[in-house]
Amino acid sequence: MEWITANWVSVVGIITGIVTVASVVAKLTPTKTDDKLVGYALKFIDFLAINNKPTEIKKTKNGEQV
User: Fold this and answer.
1) Average pLDDT over the chain, rounded to whole?
2) Looking at the predicted structure, is the pLDDT value of residue 65 above 60?
3) Of 36, 34, 18, which Cα lies nearest the Cα of 26?
4) Least confident piece of the model among 19-23, 25-29, 30-34, 54-58
5) Any residues with CB less than 8 A from the CB of 26 and at least 6 apart, and which?
6) Higher confidence at residue 47 or residue 50?
7) Alpha-carbon span 26 to 29, nearest angstrom
């Protein structure tokens, strides 16, 4: 626990980097399963950030993410 508190900035940077890469992969693949997983990760990050308004994932008319 002490290591996490001492390296908190690095830990948050790594987590957000992983989510960013996962978002790009989810955007490039045609399946919806990975889109759901990225959605869960975004909800978790919103929870950690104590955001009042959750992150919105924009979708086109045919249901694909923008």
Assistant:
1) 77
2) no
3) 34
4) 54-58
5) 34, 35, 37, 38, 65
6) 47
7) 5
Question: What is the CB neighbour count within 10 angstroms for residue 38?
Answer: 19
What is the rounded distance in angstroms from the CA atom of residue 11 to the CA atom of residue 13?
Answer: 5
56 φ/ψ angles, rounded to the nearest 5 degrees: -100, 135
Q: Is 3 helix (H, G, I), strand (E, B) or coil?
A: helix
Cα separation values, 52 from 40, 61, 64, 65, Å: 16, 27, 25, 22
Domain boundaries, the chain: 2-49
Per-residue model confidence (pLDDT) at position 56 = 66
